[in-house]
Amino acid sequence: MKHIRLYLLLLFIGLLGACEDDFLDLTPQDKLNSGDVWEDPALMELVINQMYKGLPDGFTRGWYMLGSATDDGENSYGWPSGQAFNRGDYGPSNYPMGGTWGNNYAMIRQANLFLSNVANAEVEDSAWKDRMLGEAYFLRGFYYFDLMRHYGGVPLLTAPLSLNDDFNIPRSTANEIGDFVVQDLHQAANLLPAVYGSENTGRATQGAAMALKGRVLLYQEKWGASAAASKQVIDAGTYSLFPDYHAQFHAANDNNDELIFDKQFQDPDFRHWAHLFNTPVGFSGGWGGTGPTQELVDAFEMTDGLPIDESPLYSADSPYENRDPRFYATILYEGAEYRGRTIETRLGGLDGIEKNGDATKTGYYLNKFTDESFDGFLNTGGSNDWPIIRYAEVLLNYAEAQNEAAGPDASVYAAINQVRSRPGVEMPNLPAGLSQAQMRERIRQEKRVELAFEEHRFFDIRRWGLAETLFNQPIHGMRIGPNGEMTGTDAQGKPYGIFEVENRVFSAKNYLAPLPQNEIDKLPDVLIQNPGY
User: Fold this and answer.
1) 428: pLDDT confidence band, cut at 50, 70 and 90?
2) Cis ω before 268 (30° cut-off from 0)
3) SS3 at position 197
4) Which residues are paired to 478 by β-bridges?
5) pLDDT in the model for residue 33
């Protein structure tokens, strides 16, 4: 058995060394047990910094955005691993986000090492020590939550393992993992400051811990506790909605008052290629990338607050007029103005749907996260940050949890209407008198349009139990003729208008990700695979 223990310990060390090597990797990760690290505050802080760098983000997911693995999007190039989500043809050896397990446990081990070595260490600056411990608790909680939402129950490691430890650790249940995460976040909230100075921008705060706690409890369906955690963030008054929905995702507005927690990027030290991957093909070398679906387009209400099938403002001949302003901030469509010219997704257009290569497959391009002031696609990367927790999500999480706990009371209306009435959006308030079930649907609708492509829907639809319906049917796009035709057919008899892009496949087993096969092979009697794989 000892050779298995040695192998696993070396694996843990190797995983730490496998993290990208740049400005945060200033101390050898296989020396974290050295007393030198835990006697030097600067080195201790580097251990924490490495854990921030391992955070997941939608800009570096492997050439695709996770929204393209939902009914909201379709990637314009077919080769990224994420396309396997849409085909349903992945398993224990080829999960499209297979690095999640290794990365998260590497970061958890780092947190465990930090907590075991620093908690009782003599540090002159006690406030600094508390903050560092709070960050370690927060980050460990975040990485366990991320494992939970992918795999369900996972092995719970609360201390760094050594050669003499027993590695036969079975999976805890998903609820046990969630409870542990809530405990970590509670400790983090008691240790972290409410705000930082500019020198510590991007670090976890008390508000981030409470907001994530509210999200975790939402996943556990502990409605009252989730609502209470989110309400604590709301009542603190630290955060507010940014007055420009579209511009809040631009680098110039990083670290605005709506951002509770994000993954920080800084060109050229640490950058992403989201602009290159997601800008329409007709602009400065853009790759096309993420194409919103007709399903998402149709989810945006009209400016009167009614859905397109109920509003007198909707016209099938002018389907993009009078829409929720967040539609224009999220989606580029035929006739939209972008970077000084008009988008042409029509057949034969500059950005046309049937152009060769990486052009949109749906007739739409992504506008959200693309910064019109940025034009360095081929030689430099983007530096706008990735939002992990926004204040708008906290308001919507509160509305969801409170509606489930107590029904659609005045506080539920107030939270969701605050999101809808943001300056520049100014959508009408929800109608009075909604039932709990009706409010549930309105909250889910609001989350879809407000948080589009921020990696919530992939997990939300799974936790709501709707994936077998919504992710197991065709997605659609818009095919517009060369002269703007939305009805009729071309010379080959191919119709204009809404068309089927591809059929999607989702099985019951896909609610949870498969545990990596190489991990199962190490401890086959202990790690039990998720059903169906």
Assistant:
1) very high
2) yes
3) coil
4) 498
5) 56
Task: Tell me the whole-structure pTM to 2 decimals.
Answer: 0.92
Q: CA 148, CA 524: separation in Å to the nearest integer? A: 20
- All residues at 6 or more sequence positions from 73 whose CB lies less than 8 Å from its CB, including other chains: 65, 67, 290, 291, 292, 293, 296, 362, 366, 453
Residue 383 near residue 390 (C-beta atoms within 8 A): no
The continuous run of DSSP H or E covering 390 comes out as strand 386-390
Strand (E) or helix (H) holding 389: strand 386-390
Query: Rounded CA gap, 280 and 291, in Å?
Result: 9
* Structure tokens that stand for 310 in this block: 């109920």
Q: What is the mean pLDDT of the chain?
A: 91
Q: Could you tell me the two tokens for 144?
A: 């366990």
Closest CA to 270 of 141, 131, 383, 374: 383
Round to whole Å and give the CA distance between 372 and 484. 26
> Can you tell me which residue has the tokens 């008054």?
237
Q: For the residues of 272-322, what is the DSSP string, one character each? A: B-HHHHHS-TTSTT----EEE-HHHHHHSPBTTS--TTT-TT--TTSTTSS
C-alpha–C-alpha distance, residues 297 and 299, integer Å: 5
Residue 371 near residue 336, CB atoms below 8 Å: no
- In terms of Cβ atoms closer than 10 Å to its own Cβ (0-12, 13-18, 19+), residue 212 is buried
CA distance 425 to 422: 5
Nearest Cα neighbor of 161 from 52, 56, 4, 51 is: 4
State percent of the chain over pLDDT 90: 79
Contact in structure between 512 and 532 (CB atoms under 8 Å): no
